[in-house]
Amino acid sequence: MTQSNNDDELEFRQLMADVKQLRQDTISPPPRRTKKRSDRIVQQQKHAQREADFFFSDTFEAHFTDTDKISWLSDTAPADAARRLKRGQMQPDLMLDLHGMTQAEAKIELAALMTAARRQRVQCVSVMTGLGTGVLKNRVPHWLVQHPDVQAFCQAPKGWGGRSALLVLLTIDEEI
Questions:
Q1: CATH number, domain 65-170
Q2: Residues 81-100: pLDDT tens digits?
């Protein structure tokens, strides 16, 4: 070490001679209240599951004539609704991607989509099931037929997901 460094160190030690080391007084934050929050989340999930189960029965099997290009039109739907959906003339305002979900999760998300669409007064939504093993691709149309707000649905045009998605026409409730 050089002389100037030694002088600096000596001067520093002299200045710090009266300094006493502080004892660490770390204050631990209060424990988080995750139990109440998790209870609330569990209750919300149970409510969502009950709502999904109310609309979407797994035992109901609708009859579709052509399973390759699936479509359905309710008795109350406008006559040109299915045609407009198939041609892609109606663009979805909300989209739901069910890739990688279980049937139970997909039911909950589908019920949430229907609720959101109703609140936002959306007429057309897209539900992407994906191809995968085909479980959701086969179940979702049977669930949609059961929902009172669904007027029609069909396989989406290529621009909106093609074989792995459905375009769904919904009733817009005037009273909301």
A1: 3.30.1370.110
A2: 778 888 888 899 999 999 88
